[in-house]
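User: My instructor asked us to take a sequence, write out its structure as tokens, and then describe one feature of it. I'm not sure where to start. Here is the sequence I was given:
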Amino acid sequence: MAYSQPFPLAQPIPKVQQPTFGPDLAVRLICPECRDPNPNIVEEFSSGDLVCGTCGLVLGDRIVDTRSEWRTFANDEGDDPSRVGAASDPLMEGMEQLDTAISFRDGGSGIARELQRAASRSAASRSERNLLQAFRDISSWCDQFSLPKTICDIAKQLYKRSDEEKLLRGKPLDAVIAACIFIACRQAHVPRTFREICNLTHVSKKVLGQCYKALEQAFNLTPGASQDRHHTAPTGTTGAEDLLVRYCNHLDLPPNVQPICKDIIVKARELGIADGRSPVSIAGGAIYFTCCLLDKPKTIKEISTVAGVSEGTIKLVYRLYYAEKEKLVKEEWIKDGKAKLERLPVESGSK
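Assistant: Let's start with the prediction itself. The structure tokens for your sequence are:
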């Protein structure tokens, strides 16, 4: 009787040990020029090179700096070992500038609620929260108005000072911020009118004027900066000539219109023509007068839309300029052929 051979049992496959890679500590980097058994290898992180300190041969480049990065954000000289957060803001000196957010997910243990209570007790005071909210509103409105960061910082300084001295207690926050932005534009020689600020912030002109007058007296600003004067506009005051750049750009006028229009406005101020009118009205009337003089046709409606004043106001300023046209128009403009008095319409409503 033949017996069958039993099937051999499957043998376990031996595991092949994967080679591990690591630095060979027995290998030393030696300069090929010096061949010194004790080389002086220097890592120059400023240039990213690996240099032999003996002969100066560059052994490698693009060395990564693995050291800790210590940057100085302090305003004063000295070491500042701060490695977290953004640069310190001088407007928020003495205030906590870092926020802590605690998650609600704690697996049902209730630890998150306790941590939130502890964080709320240690949070900033109400006045600091209001100041931070005002700073955010100022930054947002300045961005919407395409104002530079300089004006944004000036407006924040004005608001912080008014908040510390309680100058406008009881006034709406939006009105106080609008007044600070208006004053900042004047001080930075980037003039904006009351109407433009009111349209941006949705604050009534009356409330804005009250806040502006209060800040004007408290900060010892130039009195009557919102009105034009006989003489050249003082520092911090917006004159009609300061508004010409934006208005002429919006009207797509050629470059030679603006300087001539500015000379006409300055000459009219010296002669007392259109005295007492707002800078916006004078700018609108002067632009229409100059466009007719130089044969650059622009309708009163177009100028009224850009300047934000009524057509009747522009016509009134034009009539005052037309009555003294011989004094306002220089002879050299007529000789050069740039200007002709015959182009000026007798009545502003004829165009």
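For the description part of your assignment, you could build on this observation: The mean pLDDT is 77. Try explaining in your own words what that tells you about the chain.
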